[in-house]
Each structure stands twice: as C-alpha cells, then as structure tokens.
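pinned: reference chain
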Amino acid sequence: MADEVMLSREGYDKLAKELEMLKMVERPRIADNIREAKSHGDLRENAMYHEAKLNQQRLEGRIADLEKTLQFAKVIDPSQMSGAHLGSRVKLADLEWGGELTIDLVGAFEADPLEDRISITSPMGAALLEKNVGDEIEVEAPAGTQRYRILAID
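pinned: its structure tokens
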C-alpha cells in the first residue's frame, strides 16, 4: 500500500494520544474562544474572532493529518524482524572521522535528528534496514559519502 505509514508501537501510541488530546481538550477550548469572540459584536473587525477561527483551521488540519496517519499505520513488531529495523537502537562506528554514535530507527512521524531518532526513510535509516552487526554502510550526505560499521543492534 502506497499510503502505508510504518510506526513503532511507541510512535503509534504517541500519535493516538495527541489525537485524543486535540479532540477532547483543544477542540472544545477553541470552540469556547470562538463563542467568546462572537459575543464581542461585529465579526468583521474582531481580531479575537479571526485568530480563533485561524486556530480552529490549524487544529482541524492537524486532526485530519493524525487520523489519516493512524488509519494507514502499520505497527512494526520487532520480534518478527531480522537485522536493523524500525524500533532498533543501532550503535555505529564512524569510519571516516572515528568515534561512535547511537541512533534509534523510527518512522518518519517520529523522527527527531537532534535526539538521534532517525527515520527509516532517511538516507541513513534506509541504508541500515536489515543490516547486521559487522556490516558496513555508506550514506550520501551533503558533506559527501559517510561510512559506518554496525557495532551493535538492540
């Protein structure tokens, strides 16, 4: 399926929790803001009303995105995978510069490079999929080709 979104169980649960919070907490809060703004009279020049409506549009867009993502989500079971896969923590040796780094392979919606959470659809994530300890990978990066050896997979 082209629209399939691979997520870890943790990622799926996080998105589902966000969706519930947006529907149960934020949607009513914004509706209250709109009612309050309407009570102030003329809507054509009511900045509070226009801001509340803009917030409502953003909220409904995010809700729609989350609903679609969860609808097409495929939760990956790590026990059914071999080698590096979604949900793996991979320790790498940098063969160009020395040193080591540890990354978590996650779905695109969970990625956060600043927290070393790398999407499996990124160049590095894709290069690591189904690789095993001892394998070497090459990743094309803006600074040139980077080479790594897999030291451990958890």
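why pinned: Residues 23 and 109 are 19 Å apart (CA to CA). Residues 9-38 form the longest helix (30 residues).
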